[in-house]
Amino acid sequence: xxxxxxxxxxxxxxxxxxxxxxxxxxxxxxxxxxxxxxxxxxxxxxxxxxxxxxxxxxxxxxxxxxxxxxxxxxxxxxxxxxxxxxxxxxxxxxxxxxxxxxxxxxxxxxxxxxxxxxxxxxxxxxxxxxxxxxxxxxxxxxxxxxxxxxxxxxxx
Length: 156
What we know:
Layout: H1 2-19, E1 36-42, E2 45-51, E3 58-67, E4 70-82, E5 85-94, E6 107-114, E7 118-121, E8 124-130, E9 133-141, E10 147-155
Domain DUF6265: 32-139
Keywords: Signal
InterPro entries: DUF6265
């Protein structure tokens, strides 16, 4: 009977270790699954985000939000290799391409870690659901400084 409990405890312990996600190297090829044409809904409208495959030590994307059949705003985004890590950077533009940030300003999201199904940056997380679906969680600060995490569910 003691042997039975020992085996049971050992197998449960092994199972829980197998469940832990392995942290991958901070390399673009480990997040290539982000690439593609993604569509979803957020902020009361339709969203579209197009990510390139990794090349030239970077991935690039364009994003747009459409409300009432009109573009509300655009974003240009990059994820680039920076020394031994990755950083996601973006800039916002009104529907007439006037920039929100100053000329030399970007909004930066340093990498925290990568797993087989997640790319976790400070303030933004990409989560692979399957080859044709992902969630993007973005921390957005309101005028009072309160942070709200907004979920974007995308499908190819």
